[in-house]
Design a protein that fits this description.
The protein is mainly alpha-helical. It contains 16 helices and eight strands. Helix 3 packs antiparallel against helix 4, helix 6 packs antiparallel against helix 7 and helix 9 packs across helix 14. The radius of gyration is 27 Å and the shape is globular.
């Protein structure tokens, strides 16, 4: 049941992004499913106290008369599809967050719901039928999207309607109707393209490429390869996340792709990975090992050594992050491929190359262990047999 939100109090002066700002805040209606109340804010910039109070008084009159200003999530008498999409976008922006940052799923949700709203924005949300969903699926069956993307978007629409039903925005029967739409199969697809398979990169190309990378990036490439890691797992490595007690080191990424499923990721680092990693271990246990500022300093020193004008000034280092991410890592590799004269490859292909090598030497089950595909939840992390096998594989090949 929707209740009256709290009344915004008179604004207080403060600093917001370096500007004088008068801010009033209030809480919206509690979420029926979680009980949490969203907080909203209204700001007025660069005015004195008397002006701020006059603006506040006029704004408060409008706020008291307009339910949408009080809480934009408040459902109208019969919500439309467009309204439901806006509410689910707001939910996704706060729900799909990892490490304090929104994940790419936020943008996937937005893209999927843009297509839904593009067809049915003004339709009542509770009038959507299975036939409407089939029509939407057919509209997305085009070369602009891959079949996998179409199915991901259909899944997002299903979840949006389930979410709305749980909060009493639409009848549960409507959500069940929407969920009945099938994914697009390869037989059904007439326009949607198939996603390109990620192929392993040839190690000869990797060896040619790393010659054109700074030393710290060379280490990142080979540590990722020997550990069979995803690019993001390798980029975020910290000394404190690595257990160095045994002959094989064990690395537990602080964040990984499947952590929301309650699984732990364990990476075994054998002698080859350790050899590349050891020179870069940090005394600061929580500091990222692969710091892009070290690569920038190396490039600057190279320019000075060869008496060339530095392409990057040292002050630039203050404007970059303390760790590579998957995007900046990939760009560095692609640039080095161009310098080396080899076909461009991306870091995720290293993981597939490692899986191919382990599968050829040790079999499919061993490759699955190295890639972290073995099921492992919070109550039964790794069976002793699996951990022993993983360590043995790393000792022999990693």
């Amino acid at each position: 049941m929707w209740t009256m939100p709290s009344t915004p109090p008179p604004p207080r002066a403060g600093d917001h992004n370096g500007r004088l700002c008068w801010t009033t805040r209030w809480y919206g209606d509690p979420d029926p499913a979680t009980g949490r109340r969203p907080q909203y804010a209204q700001r007025w910039y660069d005015v004195d106290r008397a002006q701020a109070m006059r603006l506040y008084a006029r704004w408060l009159d409008r706020w008291q008369a307009d339910p949408d200003m009080q809480d934009r999530r408040r459902a109208p008498e019969r919500p439309t599809v467009g309204w439901l999409c806006e509410r689910y976008n707001d939910h996704a922006a706060s729900y799909y967050v990892k490490g304090g940052k929104q994940t790419s799923q936020v943008y996937n949700v937005r893209s999927a719901l843009e297509r839904l709203a593009g067809h049915y924005s003004e339709r009542p949300a509770d009038s959507l039928t299975l036939r409407d969903m089939v029509t939407l699926r057919g509209a997305m069956d085009s070369p602009a999207l891959s079949r996998r993307t179409v199915n991901d978007y259909l899944g997002i629409v299903r979840r949006a309607y389930q979410w709305a039903a749980e909060r009493g925005m639409i009848p549960a029967e409507v959500a069940r109707e929407v969920r009945q739409v099938r994914n697009l199969s390869s037989r059904d697809a007439s326009g949607a393209r198939e996603s390109d398979r990620i192929l392993p990169v040839a190690l000869a190309d990797v060896e040619a490429t790393v010659e054109h990378l700074p030393p710290i990036l060379r280490a990142l490439v080979w540590v990722q390869y020997h550990g069979g890691m995803r690019p993001g797992e390798a980029c975020q490595m910290r000394t404190g996340d690595i257990e160095q007690a045994g002959e094989v080191w064990l690395y537990r990424p602080g964040s990984h792709k499947t952590e929301h499923h309650g699984r732990e990721r364990l990476v075994a680092l054998g002698p080859r990975a350790q050899e590349w990693l050891t020179p870069w271990l940090r005394l600061e246990l929580d500091a990222p090992i692969f710091d892009p500022r070290l690569a920038m300093r190396w490039r600057y020193d190279q320019c000075k050594t060869h008496r060339r004008r530095p392409v990057e000034q040292p002050k630039t280092a203050r404007r970059i992050g303390r760790a590579y991410n998957a995007g900046s890592y990939r760009l560095a590799v692609v640039r080095a491929c161009k310098d080396a004269g080899v076909s461009a490859w991306h870091p995720n292909q290293l993981r597939h190359a490692r899986a191919t090598e382990v599968r050829r030497q040790r079999g499919l089950e061993a490759a699955q262990l190295v890639l972290g595909h073995a099921a492992a939840d919070v109550t039964q992390i790794y069976a002793e047999r699996d951990l022993a096998a993983l360590v043995e594989i790393a000792r022999a090949t990693g």
